[in-house]
Design a protein that fits this description.
The protein is globular and about 60 Å long. The chain starts with 9 loop residues before the first helix and ends in a 9-residue tail after the last helix. α8 links the parallel β7 (150-153) and β8 (174-177). It has 217 residues and is of the alpha/beta class. It is built from nine helices and nine strands. The chain has helices at 10-28, 36-43, 47-55, 69-79, 95-101, 105-108, 139-145, 160-170, 196-208; strands at 33-34, 67-68, 87-91, 112-118, 127-128, 131-135, 150-153, 174-177, 190-193. It has a seven-stranded mixed β-sheet, with helices on both faces. It folds into two domains: 10-80, Arc Repressor Mutant, subunit A; 85-198, 3-Layer(aba) Sandwich (Rossmann fold). The structure holds nicotinamide-adenine-dinucleotide.
Length: 217
């Protein structure tokens, strides 16, 4: 794989999980080989784009034959780092945090929910989906003990920065931030902001402007 020597666009990286998800489904359907045309049809992405994306990481598939599903799935999983079995923590176990803690699909991707943090005394000590809720004050100790690399922020907006600061001090390397505000972190920390209202507002745009569905990009 050659991804270390070139810069891969964010758009390409964002498509990799889609390829991964579709290849998993194909594997479940016992499909052994798939062409970029068929993969493209399933994903609504052009075969040229798929070939270009995958070529950024090395040579996959056989000309005139297609991609071996099992092999490509393993390769994309490795590119995504899913074999690392990352431990993650959820901070804030309210409506959103509760739902995320009970979402079983993360573990099938190799992500392990190792701890949950909150400040509400009625929640400390509870076990959700088999995982203990700790007080925020214990974060540094628990993050070290449980080798946690990723923190998911699911606290009210007003507390997001304070939680991010604690995550950084605790040694976390990546943050998935659901609070609707930009958090400030050192340059060495990766942050992905997730704002569910973006999807709904985009849908509103298409509905309000009566854009024909086929013209969506
Ligand atoms: N509910 C949703 O569908 C949804 C969707 C997208 C984004 N969000 C965002 O996610 C965040 C959480 O939303 P919610 O609806 O789950 O809120 P919520 O009020 O139901 O839960 C918040 C939880 O965070 C805890 N908390 C508060 N301050 C804390 C701190 N300093 N440290 C640790 N825990 C703390 C609270 O005790 C509570 O358990 C908000 O920023 C919200 O805007 C929510």
């Amino acid at each position: 794989m050659k991804e270390d020597s070139i810069i891969i666009s964010k758009a390409t990286i964002d498509r990799l999980p889609l390829y991964f998800r579709t290849l998993r489904l194909l594997q479940r359907e016992d499909v052994e080989i798939i062409s970029s045309e068929e993969l493209g049809r399933r994903l609504g992405i052009t075969p040229e784009q798929i070939r270009k994306d995958l070529a950024s990481f090395g040579q996959f598939g056989k000309k005139g034959v297609g991609y071996y599903v099992k092999e490509l799935l393993r390769n994309i999983g490795d590119i995504l780092g899913l074999h690392c079995n990352w431990n993650f923590a959820i901070i804030g176990v309210g409506h959103l945090g509760w739902a995320l803690a009970n979402y079983r699909h993360f573990s099938s991707l190799g992500f392990n929910l190792a701890a949950i943090f909150d400040v509400d005394p009625t929640k400390i000590g509870l076990h959700i989906n088999g995982v203990q809720v700790f007080h925020l004050d214990d974060m540094e100790k628990i993050v070290q003990e449980k080798n946690i690399h990723i923190g998911i922020i699911a606290v009210p907006e007003a507390h997001a920065q304070e939680v991010a600061d604690k995550l950084v001090v605790s040694g976390i390397r990546g943050i998935w931030n659901f609070a609707p505000r930009k958090i400030r972190v050192p340059g060495s920390i990766y942050v992905i902001d997730e704002d569910l209202s973006v999807g709904l507002s985009s849908l509103s745009y298409y509905l309000a402007r009566k854009v024909p569905p086929k013209q969506q990009i």
